[in-house]
Amino acid sequence: MDIKSGDTVLIYTPDKKTYLVTVSEGKRMSTHLGELSLGDAIGLEYGSAIYSSLKHSFLVLEPTLEDRMMKVKRFTQIIYPKDAAIIIMNTGIKSGMRIIECGAGSGSLTIALANAAAPGGKVYTYDRSERFLENAKRNVEAAGYGDTVEFKLREAGDGFDETGVDVVVLDLPSPWDGIPAAARALRGGGRIASLSPTYNQIEKAAGVLESHGFVFMETVEVLVRNIRVAYGKTRPEERMVSHTGFLTFGRKALAKARTVTEEPEVESEEPVGAAEEAGDKAEE
User: Fold this and answer.
1) How far is CA 239 from CA 16, 78, 80, in A?
2) Confidence band, pLDDT 50/70/90 cuts, at residue 280
3) pTM of the entire structure?
4) 52, 4 contact by CB (below 8 A)
5) Could you give the residue range(s) of every CATH 3.10.330.20 domain in the chain?
6) Closest listed residue to residue 131, CA positions, set 151, 111, 146
7) Average pLDDT in the 155-165 region?
8) Options 3.40.50.2000, 3.10.330.20, 3.30.300.30, 3.40.50.2300; CATH of 8-63
9) pLDDT at 257
10) What confidence category does residue 259 fall into, taking pLDDT thresholds of 50, 70 and 90?
11) Distance CA 143, CA 151 (A)
């Protein structure tokens, strides 16, 4: 595949640094190993080399989804590809689906969701910060998914415009603020995913999810450890991407699962605690 003007490419330096840039005639890029003329990449195949003013060779590679996610301009902590992959897998997102994301942040996860939902799908991403939302929008458009994502400025507790969606993803400091709105927006059997960094957050979120009719819940943590490969000296890297957050998943139920011997619950018209109070008075 030949590189064209306007394409986004990954520049790989001789000392293994990477830069995500857009190629165009006359565009130049300064590096610690000399200046690059990015127009030199036009017409080349991915994997080819271009040369700096100091005659060092730089490879021009095709960016992956992970490259695009990790290279976004950040105003907030991003959701890492390792977590985004599990979110997409566990919620079953595929082309044509409609997804609500609450907590756009810098748009890293938004890019992954849009990639999974395209073509034909739609991601509705909400954030309460106009600054964050505008930055996320620029990052998503730069990644080529502007037509798949709709951006909305709103607090989670104020609800969502959409109903009957397939998946809701919450990346909020207080995920329970978004759970009631998520329950209203989801279709029957729809899935929810929530990312939280601490134990007390996932404990409270799990209870609120259950109270809003979510079932089949699970919480996981994803750790990734790279391996340093060298003949006779292969071993794990000293540094790793470890705890970035806990992921909680659930599915919206429209009824309760019961065995044939269980009696259905009958809603009482008495206020909570009325029966106990009556019993206490009878004993008196």
Assistant:
1) 17, 19, 16
2) low
3) 0.87
4) no
5) 8-63
6) 151
7) 96
8) 3.10.330.20
9) 84
10) confident
11) 15
Q: What's the mean pLDDT when you consider all of the chain?
A: 92
Higher pLDDT, 284 or 112: 112
- The per-residue pLDDT for range 74-86, each reduced to its tens digit, is 998 899 999 999 9
Stretch(es) of the chain classified as CATH 3.40.50.150: 67-252
Q: SS3 sequence, the chain?
A: CECCCCCEEEEECCCCCEEEEECCCCCEEEECCEEEEHHHHCCCECCCEEECCCCCEEEEECCCHHHHHHCCCCCCCCCCHHHHHHHHHHHCCCCCCEEEEECCCCCHHHHHHHHHHCCCCEEEEEECCHHHHHHHHHHHHHCCCHHHEEEEECCHHHCCCCCCEEEEEECCCCHHHCHHHHHHHEEEEEEEEEEECCHHHHHHHHHHHHHCCEEEEEEEECCECCEECCCCCCEECCCCECCCCEEEEEEECCCCCCCCCCCCCCCCCCCCCHHHHHHHHHHC
